[in-house]
Amino acid sequence: MIKKHALRVAVAGVCAAVLALSGCGASNNTANGSDGQSAGVKGGTLNILLSSTEMDLDPAKSQGLPITSNGNIFRRLTAWKVTKGGETKVVPDLATTTGEPSDDGKTWTYTLKDGIKFDDGTPITSKDIKYGLERSFADSLTGGLSYHKTLLEGAQDYHGPFDGQELDSIETPDDKTIIFHLNAPFGDWPWVASLAAFTPVPVGKGPASGYGKTPVASGPYKVESNEAGKQAVYVRNKYWDKKTDPVRTAGPDKIVFKMSQDTSVAAQSIMQGTGEGKNSFLSGFVPPAQLAQAQANPNYKKLLVTSGDGALEYLAINTKRVTDLKVRQAIEYAVDKKAYQTTAGGEIAGNFATTLITPGIAGREKYDLYKASSSGDVDKAKALLKEAGQTSLKLKLIATSDQAEKASSIQTSLKRAGITVDIQTLNDDVFSDAETNNEGDYDLVIGGWQPDFPSPYANISPLFDSSQIGNGNYNLARYANADVDALIKKATETIDQDEAGKIWAETDKKIMADAPVVPLIYSKNTFIHGSNVTNFVIGDFPAYPDYNQVTLASAN
Amino acid sequence: MTDVTSRANPRTRGTAGKAAGGAGAADKARSPYLRSSIIVGGAIVVFFVLLAVFAGPLSAITGNDPYAEHPEALGAASVPTGFGGGISASHWFGVTPLRGVDLFSIVAYGTRISLGIGLFSSVISLVIGVTLGLIAGYFPGLADALISRTMDVFFGFPFLIFAIALSVVVPQSFPRPLLLTLVLGFFGWPGIARLVRGQTLTLSKRNFAVASRVMGASPAHVLWHQILPNLLPLLIVNVTLSIPGRIGAEAGLSFLGVGMNPPTPSWGRSISDAVQWALVDPMYLLFPGGALFLLTFGFNLLGDGLSDAIDPRKGVRA
Amino acid sequence: MKILAYIGKRVASSLLVILLITLALFLIFFLLPTNPAQLSCGKPCTPEQLSRVAAFMGTDQPWYVQMGNYIAGIFVGRTFGTGGGAVVCNAPCLGYSFRLGEPVSQLIADRFPVTASIAVGAAVLWLVIGVATGVWAALKRDTIVDRTLLGLSVVGVSAPSYLIGLLMVIAFALVIQIFPSGGYVNFTDDPVDWFYHLILPWLVLAILSAAGYTRITRTQMIGELSQDYIRTARSKGVPESVIVFKHALRNAMLPVMTMFGLDLGGLLGGAVLTEKVFSMQGLGALLLDSVSNLDLQVLVGATLFAAVLVIIANLIVDICYSLLDPRVTLGRS
User: Fold this and answer.
1) Beta partners for A526?
2) What is the value of pTM for the model shown?
C-alpha cells in the first residue's frame, strides 16, 4: 500500500485498477469468513502478500489508510476503531481526545497521553508530531495525503524544517500539548489527524531522503528490515504499551510483508495452504479467476471475506462538453447498470448505486432521482434526447486497458438509446493525466472513489467542488455549481457532525439533480486469507481489512 | 519471443548466419528431413494465411465476432459453462471468462494482427536493409562508414525497452498495429543490411560485376541487375526466418501490456489475460498460446527447408 | 598496437552510440503528454504544489536543459533543491528516482545481482546443452538422432519463453508443488534457497535458448568435419575423439561464442519477460516499472546501463574474433 501506484489503486481515488480488480463474484454478506470473531493467539509469524515492489514507509509521503501497512508501526493523534459490520469511529490514539475545537472550529487542541514512546525508548512529545508534520512540507517529501497542507494557516510558503524554519500555525506550548490553527473552520479535523502525516518523527532524525526504509516506530511493531522487491519484516517494539492503545491488538510476533507477488499465484498458494500460505493474506483483491475457483470449493470459500458496499463506481459526464442537462439526464436513464454489474463480475462485485455518499458513512440519506429498472429506461432516455433535439449524439469515452470491458458495457447500453460512444483506450499513466489535466478532452470517463476517511467531505468535495477541476484533481465531471460550492463550504465548516450530515445529504441530492455523474455500483472488495489467519475484520468503512487486528489462530 | 536477444529481436537473425560462414564442401544432397519441413512448414503458414484472410466469414458461420459478449454462455462467477471453456457448435473454441467473447473469433482475427505485423514489418526492414546494405557494400569509404556506424547504434539499442517506451509515448489515436509494424520494421533492418553489405562486397569483386563496370554500366545498374538477383534466395530465407521473431515480439509486447490495445484481438494479450484462469479454464490459455507456437513453428520449418534448398551445404541454419 | 587503435576507435564510437541513445530517450519522454511532477504532487493537489514539485525535480526545464543536467550529473553528481532539505546524488549520478527515493545507480546495483543470477546461470546451461546436442547431431548426421534433435530445436526456437515459463509455473509450482512460483533470494542470505528459486527460470531460458545453439553448433561441426585437415588427420590415424573435440569443435566454437557473447550481454541488461513471469525484481522489472510510472531518470539510467552492456559484449566479441580468427581483419563492423 505504499507504492504510489498501488496507493492510487488500493486505497484512494479514481482509479482504473480498482474497477478492474474489484470486478468479482463472491458471497453476499459482509465478512462471511467462518472465523471472524475467534480470539486468536499471541505469537507466530503473519505474512502479508503484496504485488507492489517496494515499501516506502516515510509517513510524510504516505497516502495509505491508517489501518493498513503502516498502522502497526505508526501511531498518530487519532486512530480508526473498526468493528465488524459496524460504523468506523475516530478515537484518540496518542492524544487523550479526538481534538478540542475552539474559535468556531478554526483551532484544534490536543493533549498527549502518558507512557507513549518511540522504539528506542525515548518519550514521544508534541514537538515530534510537529516535526513530522513539518517534514511533509519539504519539496523532497511530497506525494502524501495533503489535506492538512491546504488547511493549516500560513502553510503556502512553508518548505519544511530542514533549514531551521518552523510552521507557526502548529503550536507546542509544552511537550504534552499541540495546537493547530486553521485558515477556516473544519469539522473533520479529527479524521485528518488520523492520517500518516500526523505520525511523530523524532526531531532532527527524519532526513530529507531515505527515511522510508526503516523509519522510527511508535506502534506495537518496528521495522527490522525492508528490502525492495523482497520483503519487509516487522518485529515487536518493546516500548509500546498496550494500555495506551485502544485499537491495535498486536497478535503476531512478527509480520512479514512479501513484495512483488503475482496476485493470482499468491491467492492460489493461500487457498492451497501450502508452506506459509495458511499464515498469509493477500493485501489486494482476489483476482476473478481465483475467486471463481474459491467459490466452487467449500474449503476455499470459507477463506474469502467480502466487504460491504464500498467505493462508488460512476460514469462521469464532462459537464463542460455535455452542457445540456436533458442529455445528461438521458444518459442517467440509458445506462444499463445490470449489464455493468455483470461485466464487473456479477452481484457480488457490488450493489446498484443511486447516491453519491456511500453506505457506511455517517450522514448518508438514500434516494433515487432517476428511478428506473436496473437495466435503465431506454424510452425515457430517448424521449429526453428528443426533447433536447439530439438525434445522432456521439460521445468520447476514455478508458484504461483494464477498463476495456466495462467501457464496452457502457458503449452497448448507451447504444440502445441511440447514443454512439467512441472508446479511446489509454495507457494507465496517460489516462490518469488525461482525466485530471486542465484540458479534459473527453465526454465520458468511468471513475471509482474510495474516500480517504469516512466523512461525506472526503466523498463529495474532491469529486464535485469546482476547485477540484483539473490540475491533477478528481472532479472528473468538471462540475461547477456555485450553490453546491457554497453548500460544501457550509457543511465543511459545521462542527456539529449531525448538522453537517444534513447539509451533506442536501448537497448530494442537489448535485445529482444536475446529473454530472451516473452512480453505477458501490463496489465490494473480496479478500482471501489463509486458514490459520483470524480476526480478519472489514468494517463498514473502508472496504479493506483492518491490519491492526489480524491475528493467527495458532502460533505457527 | 524470449529474453535472449538473438531471438527477442529480429535484427540479429542475420548475424548468426554471418557467423555461420565457412562451411566445407557439400558431401550430401539435401536431406529428406528438410524437404518435408518445407511441406509441413509451408502448409502451416498457408493454413494461418487462410485463417487470417477468412477470419470474418469463418467467424460469421457461427454468427460470431471478436467483440460481442455472450453472457448466456457464462455460469456463476462469470466462468464459461460446459466442456473445455464452453466449447460448443456455436463457439468452436469456447468463450472467454467474464464477458463470454467467442474465442475462435479472437484467435482468427488475432492471426491477422500477428501475420500482418510479421509480414509488413519484414517488408519495411527489407527495403531499408537492402538499400543501405547495397550502398555500404558497393561504396566503401564514407557511405560505408556512416551506415556501419548507424548499424552499431541499432545493435547497441535495447530494442525491447525502446519499444515499451515508445508505446507509452505515441498518442493512442495512432493505430497500434501500424505503430508496431513500423517499430519492428525500423529496428529489423540492420541484420539484413549487414548480410547484404557482406555479400555485395564479395559479389562486386566477381568477374561479371567487374566486367559490367568496365563496360560502363552505372552503379545502379550493376546493383539492381547483377548483384541483387544473386542475393534474392538468401534474402528470402533471411526474411522467412525473421518473421517468427517479429510475430513473437508483437505477442511479447502485447503480453507485457504495451502492444495491442483492447478490444483489438491479439494472441499475446489473450495469453496474458488467460494466465490467471489457467487452472479454472485452461482452454482459454491453450488456444491463443497454441496458435502462436504453431505459426512461429511453421515459419521456422519453412525457413529451414528453404535455406537448405538454396544452399544444401549448410543444411540447417542456426 | 593495431589492436589498441582498434579498441580505441570502437570505444569512441560506443560513446557516441550511448549519447545518441540518451538523446533519443529524452526526446521520446519530452513528447509524452503527461507531467511527471503530478505523480509526486500528493492528494489533494494544488497548482502551487504542482509547480513547486516540478521546480524541485527540474521537470519545469526544457528537455535539452534536463538532458544537459542529466549528462553533467554522470560526471559531477547532482543536487536537487537547496539547503538542508536538498537531495544529493553523487557522481556517477545516473539519475534520481523521486518515486523510490533512491539514486538510480543504487537501484541498478540492487537489481543487477538478480538479473545476473538468472542470466549467467541460464547462459552456462544453454551453452552446455546446446553445444553437446549440436555435436551429437552433427556426428549422427541424418540419423534418427539428428532428426529428432533438429525437430526439437525447431520447437525450441518457436516456443515463446514466457508461455513455457507460465506453463512451468502452473505445473511445477501450483499443480505439483515442488518449486517456488517465483521470487528471488539473495545468494548471501541462503545459497540453497537462491538456487532453488532459480531452477525454473534457468531451465526455461536454457532449454529454449539452447535450441539456437544446437543448430549453429551442428552446422559448424558438419562444416568442420568435412574440411580437408580433418580428412588428413583421420588418414593419419588420429583417434576420432581427438579429431572431434580437439580439432573440429575448437574451430566450430568461434561463431558459437560470438552468439553467446551477444546473447549474454543483452540478457544482463534485463531479462524483462523472464523476470515478469517469475516475479523477480531484476533490471528488466525495474525498467518496466519505470515506464509505467513515468520515472524518466530510472528509465534512462537503466536503459543506458543495458546499452553499455550490449556494447561491451559486442566489443569483446569483436576483439576476440579478430584475435582468434586470422581470416577476419580488424575493422569488420
Assistant:
1) A306
2) 0.85
